Amino acid sequence: MRGYFGKKTAIVAAPLATTSMAVAEAVEVLHWWTSGGEAAALNVLKDDLAGKSIGWVDMPVAGGGGEAAMTTLRARVTAGDAPTAVQMLGFDILDWAAEGKLANLDAVAAEEGWDAVVPAPLQGFSKSDGHWVAAPVNVHSTNWVWANKAILDELRLAQPTSWDEFVAAMQKVKESGKTALAHGGQAWQDATMFDGVVLSVGGVEFYKRAFIDLDPAALGTDQMVEAFNRMATLRGVVDDNFSGRDWNLASAMVINNEAAFQIMGDWAKGEFLKAGKVPGTDFLCFRVPGSQGMVAFNSDQFAMFAQTDEGAVAAQGEMARAIMSPSFQSAFNVVKGSVPARIDVPNDAFDDCGKQGMAELAEASTNCTLVGSIAHGHANKAAVKNAIYDVVTAHFNGEYDVATAAANLVGAVEAAQ
Ligand code: GAL
Predict the structure, then answer these.
(1) Nearest CA to ligand 1 atom 11
(2) Which CATH architecture describes the domain 141-296+362-416?
(3) How many Å is the maximal CA-CA distance in the chain?
(4) Closest ligand 1 atom, CA of 300?
(5) Which residues of the chain have pLDDT under 50?
């Protein structure tokens, strides 16, 4: 699959010595899992490590999508004080590996047989220059819609299966006085909706040409104008207070019967579950209409920053081993809303949305309809991602029309490379 594999030459430290002995050491973990659902999932990890006598020093940096966390990380590393373990996405992992900052996890990976169980598209981000540098904890995907079932029932709305049906349903909700689309106006949230919208317009072929190959002809095409048209449609059905709202507060609007839909990655499901809501009964999960059969993915991985202290190194190895155990992958992802990062984890413990997510990921992988998320750092390095954010957000906020948006996208992406 094109676009998943970094071509960087990495300087990676010697393999971590692994040990199965209990370690009294701690890991300091930098992450952005601060919403209710995210914190619940994080507790599964904390408890697992506590059971293995690995201490936990918490370094939360709030902010969905992790931009603020990455800024903090850069400052810590620059100050010579890197945390031991860091939640990280896609191309950021490859960039830090290329800077020679990450520990080598080859020994624990070999002992635990990671090569055979982690899908190739994920390995493209867990490995640099052939060496394991991160342990993937999940696979999320962004092209989902979360719907309030009671509102749909009350308005006699069926689950939409095409973009036009989706728009018609949102108009009906708006006319009823409820909010059609719960959304938070933050660049990464606008871009998260854009992932699904681009797929709904032109499928994976267009998505790959434009956002993975960065072909200027695709970036400026009529299909891109249509993608911005669809974003403008979405802008027309959010409430007046959307600006700056955190994503989990938008989820809460759907949970609390204030809004009918949210387009968001499946971490949103963690919020519904935390609120005691049941898929199929209280809420529905379905792909952004028009993107069925396609999956835009991102995988949270824990990258370990190279350490010299032996105890810290041992704790890192143990944390990586714990993250990758099949039982942990099941327990964690059931709560988080994501699906396991290994292909051999049974789906028994997952709810219907989780089972659907697992089946669709496998299908998309087989059918080559699996693409890295633009919004969550799995399509391009940060500079390009941020350039796309800027244009998508400026357009969403009405700074320019659709034709200008497509033209500006071509220029911004070119300048960022
Ligand atoms: C994503 C991350 C998810 C979730 C989300 C919102 O980038 O992969 O785990 O945390 O941000 O914060």
Answers:
(1) 65
(2) 3-Layer(aba) Sandwich (3.40)
(3) 63
(4) 8
(5) 1-12, 18-23
